[in-house]
Specification:
heterodimer; A: about 210 residues; mainly alpha; Nitrile Hydratase, Chain A; two-stranded parallel ribbon; B: about 220 residues; alpha+beta; Cyclin A, domain 1; SH3 type barrels; five-stranded antiparallel sheet; 8 helices; 5 strands; about 30% helix; globular
Chain lengths: ~210, ~220
């Protein structure tokens, strides 16, 4: 099934490609010639999202929270302020909220209405996050969604889905895997996947990065 | 608006299919398209909610069949034309043919780091919050034909105020050029059985971020 879908996607992207290339090029040329935008600014923006801003930022935030209880409290209290204090990015947007997984509670983030996502700490959202299957099912079948990611939670685990319907943004603070006692923040960060900070995955296990 | 974009709880879209090692962009035009849209937002051509409304107004078949950035490109084109920033003959010719309409500012490469941070949507409160943490509330049964951030699946259902997030720009107003009209914003928590009926996952709760005008006190 996965293969078929990728094939469909390629096909869709293929048929869209030349039309979209032309359409976007025309828009850029016209808007630049009129003086509204500067193509060099577009270059800088694209470069930032391709090379600077991504889930490695969120992974550092989580690793710090795993090793520094005071930071973790600050993160739960005000994630905007706490994430900014790490100096990993210019400025974290307002209203970032960190939600903590526990042995009894698993959090998952979605935006059913569009694609709201914590860009500053996770980068641009993956295609699946913006797709109809995820946006439709996360709020009423999160265990089914987790199964699509190969994740099974205990039947008794409470699941909390956060629908990002306003300008608040959410990042999941996943549970630290056992067997990582004494690990450095840097080593821990390698366990922290993007999906574990959305709530559709769990952190890697120590043997996976050894 | 009760559009195709409001997908929470719909059936029939199939499995979620993650892509291993997904690139940031799947084609060069996707990056140009993202940056163009962001740049037009940064120079004040439209607000974030006017932009969202622009996506929601795409016909449902177009919304479902276009890729994500394909929708962004159509939105950009529609909004640039609607606001007189570009015209159909210019987009067909691929070059400017008419004088530019003055905009407040232009975005240069030096301004870009500032655009990589989300704006602040918190505002001074015009009145005290009507609800407090722990209050039972019901999402109103409303169906505005214009942009709203109250998802259909929550309408008419009762939940509990879990947190007060401050007073924020009200999307329903700013999306239609009605000004910021700041409103209190709450996290409202619903039991899945309240939303989806008795067969729902009994371990599931779902929250929305709800503006005060979306809510009424529940008995």
């Amino acid at each position: 099934m996965a293969h078929d879908h990728e094939h469909d996607d390629d096909h869709r992207h293929g048929s869209e490609l030349s039309e979209m290339q032309l359409r976007v090029r025309a828009l850029e040329t016209v808007l630049a010639e009129k003086g509204y935008i500067d193509p060099a600014a577009l270059d800088a923006m694209i470069e930032a999202y391709e090379t600077k801003i991504g889930p490695h930022i969120g992974a550092h935030v989580v690793a710090k929270a795993w090793t520094d209880p005071a930071f973790k409290r600050a993160l739960i209290e005000d994630a905007t302020k706490a994430a900014q204090s790490l100096g990993l990015i210019n400025r974290v947007g307002d209203h970032l909220i960190a939600v903590e997984n526990t042995p009894k509670l698993h959090n998952m983030i979605v935006c059913t209405l569009c694609s709201c996502y914590p860009w500053e700490v996770l980068g641009l959202p993956p295609v699946w996050y913006k797709s109809a299957p995820y946006r439709s099912r996360a709020v009423n079948d999160p265990r089914g969604v987790l199964a699509d990611f190969g994740v099974t939670l205990p039947a008794a685990t409470q699941i909390r889905v956060w629908d990002s319907t306003a300008e608040t943004r959410f990042i999941v603070l996943p549970m630290r895997p056992s067997g990582t006692e004494g690990w450095s923040e840097e080593k821990l960060a390698a366990l922290i996947t993007r999906d574990s900070m959305i709530g559709t995955g769990l952190p890697k296990q120590p043997h996976e990065v050894a | 608006m009760d559009g195709i974009h409001d997908m929470g709880g719909m059936h029939g879209f199939g499995k979620v299919e993650p892509e291993d090692n997904e690139p940031v962009f799947h084609a060069l035009w996707e990056g140009r398209c993202l940056a163009l849209n962001r740049a037009m937002g940064a120079i004040g051509a439209w607000t974030i909610d006017e932009g969202r409304a622009g996506i929601e107004q795409l016909p449902p078949d177009v919304y479902l069949s276009r890729s994500y950035y394909g929708k962004w490109a159509l939105r950009l084109q529609n909004m640039a034309v609607a606001r007189g920033l570009a015209s159909a003959d210019e987009l067909a010719a691929g070059r400017a043919l008419h004088d530019a309409k003055p905009l407040k500012r232009k975005l240069t490469a030096a301004d870009v780091p500032g655009t990589l941070t989300r704006g602040s949507f918190g505002r001074q409160a015009p009145a005290p919050a009507r609800f407090k943490v722990g209050d039972r509330v019901r999402a109103k049964n409303i169906h505005p034909p214009t942009h709203t951030r109250l998802p259909r699946y929550a309408r008419g259902h009762a939940g509990v105020i879990e947190a007060i997030r401050g007073c924020h720009v009200f999307p329903d107003s700013t999306a239609v050029g009605g000004g910021e009209d700041p409103q209190w914003l709450y996290t409202v928590l619903f039991d899945a059985r309240e939303l989806w009926g008795e067969s729902a996952d009994s371990t599931l709760t779902v929250s929305i971020e709800a503006f005060e005008p979306y809510l009424e006190a529940a008995a």
